[in-house]
Design a protein that fits this description.
Elements: H1 3-16, H2 21-32, H3 41-51, H4 55-72, H5 80-85, H6 93-102, H7 107-119, H8 123-131, H9 141-159
Helix pairs in contact: 1-4, 2-3, 2-9, 3-9, 4-6, 6-9, 7-9, 8-9
InterPro entries: PgpA-like_sf, Put_PGPase, YutG/PgpA
Pfam families: PgpA
GO molecular function: phosphatidylglycerophosphatase activity
Length: 162
């Protein structure tokens, strides 16, 4: 699959899970607006799209979404099925997958990610809540969305002149 087709597939899969790039851009804005006077949602959206062009990010997103889908179909097998279904706090692999996205943009991404993962503002709270509904698994999705937003915020911070 060529790069553009893969990028389009990733965006389609994100959308199918109930998240838009604009909502991820709103999280990016939430993270950076206090540090960047005049920051716009358009700039945030541009940076979200730039993050999603990275092959490492695409691979992480596709892997995490597929694991959520397989969990919804009860195809993971035990004990993994139960751990993913219930988003056990000690499972942690969902965060590890998110870290692979954050590694692309440096240490500031980790602090940004930790902050919004704890607060779960905007779409993150919605995804987390949806994931607790019967028959729906968003164990990986909320961490992926948070990581994309945090990486985009890091990208903005790295490119901003001080």
């Amino acid at each position: 699959m060529d790069q553009k087709a893969l990028e389009e597939l990733v965006i389609k899969k994100i959308n199918e899970r109930g998240v838009t790039l604009e909502q991820i851009a709103e999280l990016t804005y939430f993270l950076q607006s206090n540090y960047y006077e005049g920051l716009t949602l358009e700039v945030c959206l541009h940076n979200v799209k730039a993050v999603l062009k990275k092959r490492e990010v695409q691979n992480a997103v596709l892997t995490g979404i597929r694991l959520d889908e397989l969990a919804e179909m009860n195809l993971l097998g035990e004990p993994l099925q139960e751990m993913v279904d219930h988003d056990y706090s000690l499972y942690g692999i969902d965060e590890v997958l998110a870290f692979s996205i954050l590694n692309v943009y440096g240490s500031i991404g980790f602090t940004n990610y930790g902050y919004i993962d704890k607060l779960k503002p905007g779409i993150l709270g919605e995804v987390d809540k949806k994931g607790k509904a019967e028959g729906c698994c968003q164990t990986f999705m909320d961490d992926l969305v948070g990581a994309i937003a945090a990486a985009a915020a890091s990208r903005i911070a790295h490119r901003r002149e001080v």
